């Protein structure tokens, strides 16, 4: 890509993370790859953004957050939008994934992770066909 070219806008991704620096880095990494990115610093904000933005195709959410956690965000979001793609992010490998989430085959990305792999991971998730 030349210096004056901008990436063609790709899918819209909602990143939900209560740690400000991690939210910033994940969002910027995806933006640099051409994704439209919306940011939420918690579950309440995420649900509002999902309600207001029907273009969101991928939800990338931290699991452990104050208030509404990532599982609850995913469950409520998928109830309204069954074709939404979801990726969980967590620093707690020992936490079991609830049965209703594991049955859906929702992948989990464990922190710390390689930020450079995020765009490819997002692309892989978005290219999978809906059930």
Order of strands in the sheet with the most strands? 2-1-3-4-5
User: How many domains, as an integer?
Assistant: 1
User: How far from one another are the termini?
Assistant: 35 Å
The average pLDDT is: 87
Strand content: 15-25%
Structural class, from secondary structure content?
A: alpha/beta
Radius of gyration: 14 Å
Total number of strands: 5
Q: Provide the succession of SSEs.
A: EHEHEHEHEH
> Would you identify the CATH H-level superfamily?
Response regulator
From the spread of the alpha carbons, the general shape counts as: globular
Any low-confidence stretches, pLDDT <50, length ≥5?
none
The number of helical segments is: 5
What kind of sheet is the major sheet? 5 strands, parallel
Main CATH class: Alpha Beta
Percent helix among the residues?
25-40%
Instruction: Please tell me the CATH architecture by its name.
Output: 3-Layer(aba) Sandwich
> CATH topology, which one?
Rossmann fold
Summarize the structure.
The chain is of the alpha/beta class and 131 residues long.
């Amino acid at each position: 890509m030349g210096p004056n070219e901008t990436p063609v806008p790709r899918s819209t991704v909602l990143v939900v993370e209560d740690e400000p620096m991690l939210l910033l880095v994940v969002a910027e990494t995806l933006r640099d790859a051409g994704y439209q990115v919306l940011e939420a610093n918690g579950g309440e904000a995420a649900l509002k953004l999902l309600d207001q933005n029907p273009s969101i195709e991928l939800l990338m959410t931290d699991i452990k957050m104050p208030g509404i956690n990532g599982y609850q965000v995913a469950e409520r979001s998928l109830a309204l939008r069954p074709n939404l793609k979801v990726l969980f992010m967590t620093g707690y490998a020992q936490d079991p994934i609830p049965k209703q989430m594991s049955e859906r085959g929702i992948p989990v990305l464990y922190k710390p992770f390689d930020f450079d792999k995020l765009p490819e991971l997002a692309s892989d998730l978005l290219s999978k066909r809906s059930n």
